[in-house]
Amino acid sequence: MKRILTTAAALAAAASGANAGALDRSGQSIASIFELGNYAELSFGSISPSVEGTSAAGLGSRPSGDMAGDYLQLGLAMKMDLNDNLALGLIYDQPFGANVDYPAGTGYYAQGTVAELNTHALTVLAKYRLPSNISLIGGLRYQTFAAEANIPFVAGYSVIGDRDGAVGYVVGVAYEKPEIALRVALTYNSSVKHSLDTSEVSVIPGPDSVTDIETPQSVNLEFQSGIAKDTLIFGSIRWVDWSEFVIDPARYPPPQALVSYSGDYTTYTLGLGRRFNENWSGAVSIGYEKGLGGFSSNLGPSDGQRSIGVSAIYTVDNIKITGGIRYVDIGNAQPTLDQTNPSASFTDNSGIAVGLKIGYTF
């Protein structure tokens, strides 16, 4: 029973990542370090957002078409107990990303604009259990970052930022009481500083340059607790320092940065898990992220979200298979071209995320 219930909080993560705040994708969870015994997992997600808008009347009231490309998420994790108190973990994820593809031929002012941003991260963690059920967590994260964009409506501007690798860190603390499936974990993820060799096509003359980019620091609070026989409540709060994130290549023409955000996003998740029998468990969860208001970027015309997800886990011997689906109501947004007037309105958008995770205890 404990083995099934203590993993129920991870069910919601099987279908996460559909248009979380700004460029957030994986959520940077370290839940695998709390698995019982030696453990390995492979997770796969398919996310299909639909984001469409209409340009302002002064720009022809033209439809944008669906500008948010589908994408896949891959995750790997391994955890090993070195002794009764010390465990080591290894986590691969894709923490941040973007896929922008405005269809051509719509007459929308940003038609033909494409942009892609990719990150990959490998995190090495250690968890040391102290007396009184308290654990200390720490580790290093190696992250790569690459991005490119072609933005015809900004004087034919295009940019390629070559892949760069850099190191950050993770620290945290947790309290566990296994007999009631209680766990509270607080984790801090440091910012990671990248310097990308950058090539640009721009109306502003100049040589190739280096663009400094710092992926944001974040804090995760994850919790779960048994509340009745075979029943678990779980949730999380994730804060990400997006107000400090900027992509501003040297020869980008407008006075504002290519990508920036006016504030920080905080994402809340709350769910209920239930064990039905020795093999099957299920969960339902809801999520909320308040929008920042104001204008949004043309490369990311969404602001906040609400979501609902259902998940199930099948356990047999030392294998568990988790599947889930999540529906996301993507918040309305207004991009701008002059930082004064809205250039378009994006409303009634949504996304579907489907996830599968296979875990093996050895």
How would you briefly describe this protein structure?
The chain has 362 residues and is mostly beta strands. The chain is 1% helix and 57% strand.
Description:
The protein is mainly β and 362 residues long. The protein has one helix at residues 2-5; strands at 39-50, 53-55, 71-81, 86-93, 97-101, 114-129, 134-151, 157-177, 182-189, 192-201, 209-215, 218-228, 231-240, 246-247, 259-260, 265-275, 280-289, 305-316, 319-330, 344-346, 349-361. It has a single domain (2-361), classed as Outer membrane protein transport protein (OMPP1/FadL/TodX) (Porin, Beta Barrel). A hairpin with a 2-residue loop joins strand 12 (218-228) and strand 13. It is globular and about 65 Å long. The relative contact order is 0.20.
What is the radius of gyration?
A: 21 Å
Strand content: over 45%
- End-to-end C-alpha gap: 18 Å
So what's the overall shape?
globular
What keyword list fits this structure?
362 residues, 57% strand, mainly beta, single chain, Porin
